Amino acid sequence: MQERTHLENQIAALTAMQTELDDNLELAEMAEAEGDDAAVDDIQAALADLKDRAGRAELEALLSGEADANNAFVEIHAGAGGTESNDWANMLYRMYVRWAQQHGHKVDIIEEQGGEEAGIKSATILVKGINAYGWLKVESGVHRLVRISPYDSNARRHTSFSSVWVYPEIDDNIEIEVAESDCRVDTFRASGAGGQHVNTTDSAVRITHEPTGIVVQCQSERSQHKNRATAWNMLRARLYEMELQRREEEANAQAASKTDIGWGHQIRSYVLQPYQMVKDLRTGVESPSPDAVLDGDLDAFMGAALAQRVGGEDA
Question: 5 to each of 11, 71, 226, how far by Cα in Å?
């Protein structure tokens, strides 16, 4: 039923864009005949916006994976480097929250471990919205930042790394069985950024799946029962995502597993000094506006990576 509703929405959106195109073309002919240059400029701007929306709709039509329409968990982990890397992880955290908000998605904070001086060591958010996983899945990998560190009194240039790991929230239609005997469940006291206690009970839950080494944790609720349920859901989702990666690896004959947080494994570089540039190392897409990218302007990077991925699957 949900898939049918989504398909109906896609058809309605495409029909509306076709109507909008026809209307704008008719208005353009009238404006040109009347010599109304201001109206022509407005129509050109409207057509450019329509082109962007049509391009996004075209990519969304390609999101046909069994979990692409699902919500998405996004994990962010700071690499080695202390405060500088923690601050970079926090910048990425903010970037994905901004992207989600700009696309009308809801964001739930599942877990956050603050850095000792600034930023975060790790965080997990749940992005809720149609095709959230389909778009965000191409963001998994290591992200590299080059800048003059605000934490360095000598104003030296620093390189920092953080990893992003995206996996789909799974629904009742997908069955993933997890043996409790394979898991270690720990409880601990939930805390906020900088070590400040959110509450004084051991309500946070961490589950370690010993056969795979996967670790998930949740501290978003004051109830240990609710955190435990969310953590089990996250673990099932991670195991499902691992299965999706295994299938893709077999199909593409290339590794698609988690990599070390460091040199040689990054998917995108964000350079703030000595020049300004964001470059995706997989697709070659660049932006001269890192501030806009870090404010959530990621569609060009995601779209190119999705198109490349779909093209690779079709090859």
Answer: 10, 16, 30
Query: What is the model's pTM?
Result: 0.70
High-pLDDT (> 90) share of the chain, %: 42
User: CA–CA separation, 144 vs 146, rounded Å?
Assistant: 7
Q: Alpha-carbon distance 166 to 258, whole Å?
A: 11
**Rounded distance, CA 192 to CA 203, Å?**
13
Return the exposure string of 222-255: e unless at least 16 CB atoms fall within 10 Å of the residue's CB, then b: eebeebbebbbbbbbbbbbbbebbeebeeeeeee
- Partnered with residue 208 across adjacent β-strands are 184, 215
Q: Which two tokens stand for residue 266?
A: 């990054």
Q: How many whole angstroms separate alpha carbon 235 and alpha carbon 178?
A: 9
Q: Binning pLDDT at 50, 70 and 90, where does residue 90 land?
A: very high
DSSP-derived letter for residue 169 is: P
Phi and psi for 182 in degrees, rounded to 5? -85, 0
Query: Residue 309: which H helix or E strand, with range?
Result: helix 299-314
What is the per-residue pLDDT for 6?
A: 55
In this structure, the number of other CB atoms found within 10 A of the CB of residue 10 comes to 14
pLDDT at residue 218, rounded to an integer: 92
Q: How far apart are CA 129 and CA 80, in angstroms?
A: 32
Rounded Cα distance between 50 and 30, Å, is: 19
Both structure tokens of 246:
């295994």
For the ranges 11-15, 20-24, 145-149, 240-244, the lowest mean pLDDT is seen at 11-15
